[in-house]
Amino acid sequence: MATPLPERVCIVEVGPRDGLQNEPETIPTGIKVAFIEALAASGLQRIEATAFVHPKAIPQLADAGEIVTRLPKTDSVTFSALVPNMKGLERALACGVKRIAVFTAASETFTQKNIQMTIDESLTVFGEVITAARSAGVSVRGYVSTCFVCPYEGDVDKADVLRVCERLLELGVDEVAISDTIGAAAPTDVLHTVGFVLESIACERVALHFHDTYGTALANVFAGLQLGITTFDASAGGLGGCPYAPGASGNLATEDLVYMLDRIGIHSGVDLERLAVASRLLAKHLGRTLPSRQLQRLS
Ligand code: COA
Ligand code: ZN
User: Fold this and answer.
1) Which secondary-structure segment (H or E) carries 210?
2) Mutate to test the pocket of ligand 1, among 20, 87, 150, 211 (most ligand atoms within 8 A of CB)
3) 212 contacts 251 by C-beta, under 8 angstroms
4) Residues of the chain with pLDDT under 70
């Protein structure tokens, strides 16, 4: 018999980082802060607010320091920021970040294009970042990009995914986010690769991060639920993409995820109507309709 579905899950809202990093127009810091405040008011418990990457690499997130200092003062939300190296960590610590995310990938070519390092080099750099973060009382998530399909190399070996996840956990991350960066996976890929990873790693340590390029993201979440996963990333309105991954489109839309979880009867703590308020605020500023089906239905 299949494992019963979890009763509750945690959604990690990545719109302010994964979503906005791909927007070509600069969005004023005040709009981003208002967006994050509205997200926090919707019941989301985890929000990735920004990234301390090189401002020339991702100009859209050059205001990371100011974003962090203007985050809502609330204990009900854990805010995090993406950090690519020691320089990024120094900047993050200087403004009081309490949780960071580091990122590598399961495919060599993608890692090279994204952060100009081999996977092993990135693990060495991140080993130092993770150690320094933890000794400053900062917890760390580790993203593993391109876990199913790489835009340059094609199908990714599940053994490579497991190896990178295990190394990150040994280095001190408390969670690995197994990511389908270009949104190409199907539920069978999730059962195959994530199922394999879960033979060695506890499911509480694993989050799933899907993009919806081919419309399979919700089906992939359902495969994850069947495996017992309880942490899923999503992006308000379905914003998103990675500038270094050709073909990567928006993340799974948080509204669509919340609708499906509500309908199944799985508690996420997120109020769909209030979430739509956040997405509408941003859509209004961007002057376009965001891809989320539920957002369009509610508008
Ligand atoms: N924040 C601000 N400045 C940074 C920085 C950071 N995180 N990392 C490096 N720099 C500065 C260095 O201080 C140095 O400045 P200097 O020339 O004035 O001394 C300069 O950038 C070059 O440093 P270097 O270590 O060679 O970095 P790089 O230019 O090779 O950049 C990355 C490497 C990874 C930091 C950069 O490519 C990056 O931020 N990429 C973003 C990747 C990303 O966000 N992808 C999407 C998420 S999946
Ligand atoms: Zn992503």
Assistant:
1) strand 206-210
2) 87
3) yes
4) 1-2, 241-248
